[in-house]
Design goal:
Layout: H1 8-12, E1 18-19, E2 24-25, E3 33-34, E4 39-42, E5 59-68, E6 74-82, H2 84-91, H3 97-108, E7 115-125, E8 129-132, E9 135-137, E10 147-154, E11 160-163, H4 166-173
Helix pairs in contact: 2-3
Length: about 180
């Protein structure tokens, strides 16, 4: 596929895009069917789709829905997974110092290889998808090959780090995370 493309203009105009069915057929790209709640690996801005990228080279998100602009360019609304370091960096810009300290301690207590699901959403070009990703809740039998998460970082006033139970994810993101690869 291609490198990650964010479009601030498209993000602002998301509601005006033509929305398609929630599922997206990416079989022509060798990926299969994308459904809301699917975990995806995303090429970073400087990622080369032709190179061998490892888990640490990719970004991860959850697919929510697809839209198209007037030129039929496809965009996806996603929410991000963060590493603990990325989450701390995101929270360091918050004005409430006490909240930052509490959240930093909670996040720093997580294993460094554990991802944190967030409600931080973006709109990206469909061509930014590298592949499906196997990301499972840490409470489930993940196996060695799967990335895992167990916390949900909700940005808002105040930001909070909560358990990523199915109920909390559904309430805060509107989807159920599916760990199945296509």
């Amino acid at each position: 596929m291609s490198t990650l493309k964010f479009s601030a203009d498209v993000k602002r105009r998301w509601d005006a895009l033509t929305l398609y069915a929630e599922s997206m057929d990416l079989t022509e790209y060798g990926l299969g069917i994308l459904h809301p709640g699917c975990c995806i690996a995303i090429l970073p801005e400087d990622g080369n789709p032709e190179s061998d990228l490892g888990d640490d080279d990719l970004w991860y998100g959850v697919y929510l829905k697809t839209g198209a602009d007037e030129d039929d360019n496809l965009y996806m609304k996603i929410v991000w997974f963060y590493t603990p370091d990325q989450a701390v960096s995101q929270l360091s810009s918050r004005k409430d110092r006490k909240l930052r300290e509490i959240e930093h301690r909670s996040i720093n207590a997580l294993p460094p290889d554990e991802l944190i699901l967030s409600n931080h959403g973006d709109v990206i070009e469909q061509l930014s998808i590298n592949d499906f990703a196997r990301i499972v809740h840490r409470g489930l039998a993940a196996g060695e090959e799967a990335l895992s998460y167990r916390k949900l970082l909700c940005f808002g006033r105040p930001a909070k780090l909560i358990n990523a139970t199915q109920r909390n994810v559904r309430i805060n993101l509107g989807v159920m995370i599916t760990a199945d690869e296509n």
